[in-house]
Amino acid sequence: MLTLAYASRVESDAHDSVFCDTEPDDADLARRIAAARPGLGAAAEAELYRRLAPRVRLYGLKHLREPQAAADLVQQVLLMTIERLRAGHVREPERLASYVLGMCRMVVLDLQRTHARHGRLLVTFAHELRSEQSDGTPHLDDACLLRCLGRLPERERSILVMTFYDDRQARDVAIDLGISEGNVRVIRHRGLERLRECMGMSEAAP
Asked: CA-CA 20 to 30 A from 110: which of 5, 15, 78, 172?
């Protein structure tokens, strides 16, 4: 058992030594990740992430126009890329940059479709809420609500829609988004405050 562990450690150290002695291009890194045994490609993965992250972030800022959304895009796209490299699903490592760009487009389009769907859900939700209001309750401006919701960062918008339209508990939202339940509550509170401020309701907020 110790012999096997030691052999694995030596192989890992040798791999890292080779990695440090050369300056591989992106395609070389991709091939090393694909060829590495489980747990032995960490150095190549970290270097590939370091190189590609700025490019993905710039794409996200250009198309999503929000720093947090761009940061989320970096994590999502590069995690998917590395997982597919590990599985041997990237057939042309020499075209890795184009592959990652395609992944960026796919994820951004999916996010945009999600935004549109959330917008439609919000319109439905707003009309339902208005129909339940008494005559003495101030009128809910649907257009303003939709516009303000659209200005929120993606994660805040998603949590608000999942909470108040889908009627999901914080625990379920946390599981879906892969974050802690406490973080869901913090993001939800921040989103509500921004929404109230945008709609001019901050003075009336409890």
From this structure: 172
